[in-house]
Amino acid sequence: MSQPPLPGQPHPPSATPENQSVRVVSTVVMGSFAAMGLVAGVGILLCGGLGMVMTGTTDTGAGAMMVVGLVIIVISFLLLAGALLPWRND
Fold first, then answer.
1. What is the pLDDT of the chain when averaged over all its residues?
2. For every residue of the chain, which 3-state class applies, written as one string?
3. What predicted TM-score, i.e. pTM, was given to this entire model?
4. Structure confidence at residue 68 as a pLDDT band (50, 70, 90)
């Protein structure tokens, strides 16, 4: 629990309703992009894995697809973390 401010000290600024709605909208939009990217990354990763299983080698581009899928998954997790970061202190 936080202590109330001492007399004569200004209150900490609170979020205005306009800032709150912008924060909600940006979180929803970034979270949606992160979820779509995560699904796309998993799909690309699975396609690369299937190509590797079908050909028996990663020389046909299957290895590149797997690496790209993993990179997209990592970027999507970072985007999701960035979307949820403003809610950390609430």
1. 81
2. CCCCCCCCCCCCCCCCHHHHHHHHHHHHHHHHHHHHHHHHHHHHHHHHHHHHHHHCCCCCCHHHHHHHHHHHHHHHHHHHHHHHHHHCCC
3. 0.70
4. very high
- Write down the residue that tokens 């990663």 correspond to: 58
**Per the structure block, which two tokens stand in for 9?**
């000290």
CA distances to 19, 20, 48 from 15, rounded to whole Å, are 6, 6, 46
User: Given this model, what pLDDT does residue 89 score?
Assistant: 61
Q: Quick one: pLDDT at residue 35?
A: 92
* Residue recorded with tokens 């990763």: 45
